[in-house]
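[audit] Reproducing an earlier prediction to check determinism. Same input, same settings, fresh worker. If the tokens differ from the archived copy the diff job will pick it up downstream; this log only records the rerun itself.
[audit] input (117 residues):
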Amino acid sequence: MRSLSEPNKDLISRVTKKVRFGDRLIGYRMRERAGAFRTTAYSFEEVVHLLNDKFPQLNLKQLEKWIRTVIRDEELADSVAEAIEQENNDRERMSRVRMLMGERLCQCKKANEVTIL
């Protein structure tokens, strides 16, 4: 798996800000006894938190489209599409997407900290 290139200022801004109501993502946190809990994500970071849940449920094709159209990160969207195609099962797909999105979030937060200092 290749690393993502460093984000530019515009991408950092889009990754670290909340999205409009119409651009939110809907996912689910699965619980053994209670079932599915609907979760609404209004930011890239909230999506990463959902993916870090023990049993996240999120339509990865919809996530890829959201990254491409709302966040406008073609490189990450292409990497997510590649993960969806290459991995053998949903658990591996979700794990790889979680790593990719976590990497991008860390890059943006780190770059944002440097800018503030």
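[audit] rerun output stored. Observation attached for the diff report: The chain has a mean pLDDT of 92.
[audit] end
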